Amino acid sequence: MIRFVGDFRGCRIYLASPFFSSDQIDRLLRVSKVLRQMGFKVWSAYEDGIVVSNKSKEEDMEKAFQENIKRIDECELVVGITDGKDMGTIFEMGYAYAKGKPIIGYAETLRDKPFNLMLARSCYGVAKNLEELRNVLIKFVTGEECEKVTNIE
């Protein structure tokens, strides 16, 4: 697992997130803002214009798929927003795990409900709000271990 002990500015983060409702877009933008304020380089399909629909041309869908894969391959860390249980986000997190990329899960609407076992075990850490996200990121870049999620289903 890659760690950025010390200077982490410039660490590339792939932000995996649904963006199909105003709530989801608002959440994505708030998370992205925090990541950028901390000095990370953030890439997200929504913010970087790689958005297609099921009405898109086949070549546009393939281009979007390949661009997302490329960006995951190039990043040092994935932050996955699991609110909404979006299949694309879950795929991106699984792909990142298979490629050995560290993952931080963000589950703002989780509250006290259990977190999914497979996601919990594949994530370096899980945050339920922006302050927790900052803390998990600081632990990540300083090489500190993060608590494992124990409330799982």
Which percent range describes the beta-strand content?
A: 5-15%
Determine and state the CATH class. Alpha Beta
Major sheet attributes: 5 strands, parallel
Number of E-type strands: 5
CA-atom Rg in angstroms: 15 Å
Describe what you observe in this structure.
α1 links the parallel β1 and β2. The protein is α/β, with parallel strands linked by helices. The chain has one domain: 3-Layer(aba) Sandwich (Rossmann fold). Helices cover 42% and strands 13% of the residues. The chain has a five-stranded parallel sheet, sandwiched between helices.
Give a summary of the structure in a few sentences:
With 153 residues, this protein is of the alpha/beta class. It has one domain: Rossmann fold, CATH 3.40.50.450.
Question: Which key phrases capture this entry?
Answer:
5 strands; 5 helices; Rossmann fold; five-stranded parallel beta sheet; 153 residues
Question: Secondary-structure blueprint of this entry?
Answer:
Elements: E1 12-16, H1 22-37, E2 41-43, H2 58-74, E3 77-81, H3 87-98, E4 103-106, H4 117-122, E5 125-127, H5 130-142
Parallel strand pairs: 1-2, 1-3, 3-4, 4-5
